[in-house]
Fold this sequence. Notes:
Blueprint: E1 4-10, H1 25-37, E2 41-50, E3 53-63
Antiparallel strand pairs: 1-3, 2-3
Amino acid sequence: MKKYLYKVIDTRDVETAGLFKGRKREDVESYLNSLGASGWELVNVDFRELEGGLEFAGVMKKEL
C-alpha cells in the first residue's frame, strides 16, 4: 500500500516584491513548479485572482 506525505500551502508561501505587493501569476507558477520538481503533486486548490495579485490555498502530496 502506498503512503503519502501531505503539505498545506497558501499565498504566504510565495515570495513577493514587498510587504504590500501582490503575488504575480508567474511567481505562483514558479513556486508550484519548484514543489513539483521536488516530487510534490497538487491535489486540491482554491485559487482567486484579485486586483493587484493572486490568492490561493492548496494541498500537496508526495509519495513516501
